[in-house]
Amino acid sequence: xxxxxxxxxxxxxxxxxxxxxxxxxxxxxxxxxxxxxxxxxxxxxxxxxxxxxxxxxxxxxxxxxxxxxxxxxxxxxxxxxxxxxxxxxxxxxxxxxxxxxxxxxxxxxxxxxxxxxxxxxxxxxxxxxxxxxxxxxxxxxxxxxxxxxxxxxxxxxxxxxxxxxxxxxxxxxxxxxxxxxxxxxxxxxxxxxxxxx
Length: 197
What we know:
The chain is mainly alpha-helical and 197 residues long. 31% of the residues lie in helices and 8% in strands. The protein is built from 6 helices and 3 strands; from the N terminus they run H-H-E-H-E-H-E-H-H. It has helices spanning 5-14, 19-37, 45-54, 98-105, 148-155, 172-178, and strands at residues 40-43, 66-70, 109-114. Strands 1-3-2 form a 3-stranded mixed sheet. Helix 2 runs antiparallel to helix 3 (45-54) and helix 5 packs parallel to helix 6. The chain is globular, with a radius of gyration of 16 Å.
């Protein structure tokens, strides 16, 4: 098992494993754990493998590393853009926002979206659209929110990291609920744009 995202990138670059192999490993772990956790609500493994095969090594720090986006505010063209709300259950993103483009420039391969509370309004992840996410340490508990699905999938070992966002504790709360370290950069350092700061 490759323990970190940087180690995964180094293994891909060294030819010890391919990005497609990492995607397959992630899919296998997800298939085993997600039915209990409900941490991930949407995947794109086939498309991700095509993107991985076409990826050129230009020194990206996370070259070929699979990554789950948060299912709120991290738009990928063609992906669901529900905000965790039944009101927008059929909505699709029409463009990839600046934040996700920045992740792709770093070498990440987007493989899916993590579960969120409706519009990120709660500190637990229990949107009626997707159902509650569960804490891998104890399935009777929540992994927190609003980046609760992201915390659950990292704590369960499905992925070494996942994208989150935090306006009022939405990274910090899930990290504390799930025994993780959550990084909230200074406001404005990671702009999402073009529709939001």
